[in-house]
Amino acid sequence: MNARPRCLAVLTGALVLAAATAATAGAGTPQEAIIKKTIDAAFAVLKDKALAGREKRPRRIAALRAVADRTFNWSEMARGSLGAQWRGLNAAQRGRFVDVFKEVLAARYMDDIDRFQGTETVTVDGSAAQGDEVVVRTTLVTGSRERVPIDYRMRAQQDTWMVVDINIEGVSLVNHFRKTFAGALANMTVDQLIDRLEGQRSGR
After folding, report:
1. Low-confidence ranges of the chain (pLDDT < 70)
2. Radius of gyration of the chain (CA)
3. CA–CA dist 68, 23 (Å, integer)
4. Do 36 and 124 contact (CB within 8 A), yes or no?
């Protein structure tokens, strides 16, 4: 990405994502409550001294991803990011793409997590229905008091609501990746794209 979205919050689901307690306002709807719970859980990981330090990075990232896995529908986010190409994939290809999508996303924002300062806060500012989805509005307040609007787009999944996209400062994460992948797929197959993403994940 040339201008990647800021993502302490993407991984809070974050990211994505204060030693201070999250300053949540309202959290009156079920969707707002889910986002508040996710943010609180992510902050608990980031405040955990047993997970602090560069040498604990793998454990810290794994704990944050476990939090995100409970709230994010990675399959739906991967499908939306791949766009029309998704329909032509078989089950094995879809599984590979979802797995590598999660891994690449985590790796991409690892450095952002390491810049966590302990003075960030998040407010849950409300929610609004948009068709069969609900958008939960939040604001990340950085240590320098910069305010970063982050919206979580949620969709009903069986007996709960899950995040299917994140909008950071007006930039949709799903749309951002869709454009990136579309550019790559102009010159390669989906399997080649997956291979390349797996190579990025492993550092090859």
Report:
1. 1-27, 107-118, 201-204
2. 17
3. 19
4. yes
Return d(Cα 19, Cα 24) in angstroms, integer: 14
Taking CA atoms, 81 is separated from 23, 43, 75, 122, 165, in Å, by 31, 27, 10, 26, 10
Which DSSP string do the residues of 41-101 spell out, in sequence order?
HHHHHHH-GGG-SGGGHHHHHHHHHHHHHTTB-HHHHHHHHHGGGGGG--HHHHHHHHHHH
Q: Which two tokens stand for residue 58?
A: 């793998």
The answer to whether 27 touches 21, Cβ cutoff 8 Å, is: no
pLDDT in tens, 23-68: 444 457 999 999 989 888 888 888 889 988 889 888 988 888 888 8
Burial class (CB in 10 A: 0-12, 13-18, 19+), 202: exposed
Residue-level pLDDT at 145: 85
Model's pTM, two decimal places? 0.82
Q: Return contacts of 53-56, CB within 8 angstroms, 24+ apart.
A: 54/114
Question: Residue 151's beta-bridge partner residues?
Answer: 137, 167
